[in-house]
Structures are given as structure tokens and as C-alpha cells.
Amino acid sequence: MGSRYDHITLEERHLICRWRDAKVPVRVISERLGRHPSTIHREIRRNWFDDGPWLRGYFAIAADERASSRRRRVGKLHRDPELARFVTERLRETWSPEQIAGHLKATRQLQAYACHETIYRYVYGPDGRAAELYKLLPRMRRRRRVRYARQPRGPADLPNGSHESGPILSRQRHGSAQSGCFGPGQETADSIGHENLRRRFRSQDPHRLESIATFGV
Fold it and tell me: What is the Cα–Cα distance from 91 to 84, expressed in whole angstroms?
């Protein structure tokens, strides 16, 4: 069994469809085509056609169209050679991706538009790396971290609650130290504050206190 890494052709898909109808095992199909069994399994799974209980299965034409549509789903700069050429020329003129995106948006020089993140993805993509476009950026970096990605969960977000954040732990330590500095029979800071609040209300007008208790004003 040979090792092949090229795309499955339409002729091979016709053979797969015909042999599947003949109940030929996948391992035998892979041996006949000179491909790995996992390649055949993946081909059938990804290009399986399902249009209800009456039309379901692996069909060569539908599988080939679905595979071709996936290959066509490439980046905007790959689909538009004129836009890719404009971006590359501006990069060689020491423009930054932000400046290129702002210029395209303000002047509408081209019908297509690309934001700066699209330009960065093109620069750090396979074609951009092959052309070494990253060397034309103001900050030459071989790699760039993913933007707008999901942030990692911190220790405070763990479901078991075993790890708590620093401010919470510091408050707990502060509270324990504060409560531990008073000996038996001594008042804490909270009890002193409550007592001062009660004394303040006692010094007010009794009629005012009765109005507060009755009407809340």
C-alpha cells in the first residue's frame, strides 16, 4: 500500500461509489486505490450526502462538488489577486496593515476591502511566509499571537472553588488577622461601629426616629 497525499480524483470517487454499492470492504477499496483506509473512511464521512431518508449515501458527483467547494473557501486575498498585489506593494513601501486597511476604507481605491486582521493573516499564512512578507512589517516577527481569541480561564473560574483569586485571599487573611488581634472580652471593630451607630440615633429627635420607623423618611 503506497503513501499518497494528493487529493482524491473524480475517477477514484466513481470507483469508491461503485465498490460501496457492491459491498466491498473499505480496506479492500484502499488497497485497490493505493491509499490508507483512514483516507477512504474520511472521504466517505466528509462527503456523505444526506437529503432525507429516501436520498442518502455516497455519490461521486456530489462528493466531488462538496470537496471542491471546501478547497475554494480560502482567504479574501487569495480570492482577489488585485487586492493581494495592492497589499504587497504597500507593504514593500513600509506601510503597516493598519494604514493599508484605513486607506482602503477611506479612499475606496479598490472595490474590495480588507481589514488589518485579514492582512495579518495573509502575511503570516503559507503564501506570505513563502514570500517573507513578515519582514516588511514595522515590527518584524516570524509569528503573531492569535487576536480576539478566547481568553484562558483563571484560577478563580475553576468550578471546584479550590483556587481563589489573590484579592479574595488577601481579604480573608486580613479579616482573620483583624479578628485575631482582639483577646477574650474585647470588642471587635464591627461591634464598635455598630455601637457608635446606635448612639448616633439615640441622640436624634425622638419624633424623627418615629417618623423613620413608620414611613421610612
Answer: 11
